[in-house]
Amino acid sequence: MKILFLSHKTIWRGVSVWMLHLSRYLRDAGHEIHILAHPDNPLWRLDTDGLHVERLSIRFDFDPRAILQVARYVQAHDIELQILNNPREIQIGGLAGLATGVPCVRRIGRQDDFRNRWKDRFYHQKLIQHSITTCDYIARDIERSMQYVSAGTIEHIANFRDPISVPASRRQEIRTGWGIAPDQLLLGTMVALEKEKGILQILDALAVVQDHLPPWRYVICGEGTLRETIAHRIHSLHLQDRVMMVGRVQDSAEKSACFDIALLYSSMEGISHTLLEYFASGRPTISTDSGGLAEVVRHERNALVIKWNDQRGLESAIVRMARDRALRQTLGSQARGDLVDHFSTEVKCREWERWLRGCIV
Fold first, then answer.
1. Same-domain check for residues 54 and 174
2. 8 A C-beta contact, residue 160 and residue 350
3. Model pLDDT, residue 250
4. Cα dihedral sign for 43, 49, 51, 56?
5. d(Cα 353, Cα 233) in Å, to the nearest integer?
6. DSSP 1
7. 243, 203 in Cβ contact below 8 A?
8. Which of 14, 32, 36, 223 is deepest in the core (most CB within 10 A)?
């Protein structure tokens, strides 16, 4: 297959990680992979050996110069399929696809990618031939809520991640850099600092149970619009000596491997990259079953699972996990095993390869 990804992004987040990992897998499987990326995309600093990568600048909506560049590129390289994600990519790649007769796949991140606007209807009905997302929950929710999306038309393949091992010496180095003492239990969260990620609720729970835990600290990794609100809540709860905000970190999987307990208290998720990173290093995890998370977590098998807005349930889960070392070891080991069996790169990229073949006419 000859596949073109458009990546008009300047911040490296989940969909960009997915694109690079899938591209490498398809490359290694013998396919020809092309990427047209924003000049400021972090992709330029990463290993793209064996991938055909060139720059693409999209100045504004429906930029004719960008459409022409993509259409010419598609024809020059005999591209058979385009993979798109955000609205600008859909506008440019979709119109280039119409001009050249090359089908387009839309990789959907979340439900609010779809709205009842003329643009969204135009994208779905005219520019996109195949749509896919990360979990069954998102696919069916979009089909139920948007009249212009027919039932059963959105496929789903979960995100993927391979297990990792971080040497104890490296974990200790990172923890020391954060000021964590050897005898302290480290709770951690690796998320965007947005309302739906539940950081404020976690802080409230910790304030309630703080004296019922062994010596502990809580580290919050990430940036977002709620940063100042979270910082204020930490101080108002008098948790500043136990809670730290370290901002966005490099190599999030390595950093989350330093957590003794990983927390994911989201009101809405697809198949979360964060959750899979927790599982990749065998982190004992407390998670909600919101959205697509329910397709991964199993209560008392690979995580302690609680409902969103069950504050007492969150408090109880934190105390139970913190006090029970054997439980942490059991859940962490099973989480890693489930990742290998069901969500590894090999398993999920093989599904992607089969599905993409079916998209090429």
1. no
2. no
3. 86
4. positive
5. 46
6. -
7. yes
8. 36
CATH number (domain holding residue 291): 3.40.50.2000
In the structure encoding, which two tokens stand for residue 173, read together?
């180095």
With cut-offs at 50, 70 and 90, classify the pLDDT of residue 43: confident
Residues 174 and 153 in one domain: no
The two three-digit tokens of residue 203, written as one number: 């802080």
Half-sphere exposure at residue 257, Cβ-oriented, CA atoms within 13 angstroms? 20
Using left for φ > 0, alpha for ψ between -120 and 50, and beta otherwise, residue 215 falls in beta
In whole angstroms, what is the distance from residue 92 CA to residue 5 CA?
A: 12
Q: Which helix (H) or strand (E) holds 320?
A: helix 311-323
Which residues of 232-315 form beta strands (DSSP E)?
A: 243-247, 261-264, 285-288, 304-306
- pTM here is 0.84
Q: How far apart are CA 123 and CA 91, in angstroms?
A: 7
- For the segment 78-89, the average pLDDT, to the nearest whole number, is 96
pLDDT interval class at 116 (50, 70, 90): confident
Residues 174 and 151 occupy one common structural domain: no
Range of the domain at 89: 2-160+345-359
Q: Are 326 and 230 members of one domain?
A: yes
Looking at the structure of the chain, the number of domains it has is 2
Give the span between the Cα atoms of 156 and 139, in whole angstroms: 7
Helices (H) and strands (E) in the chain, counts: 13, 13
What tokens appear for 324 in the block?
């029970």
Same-domain pairing of 137 and 279? no
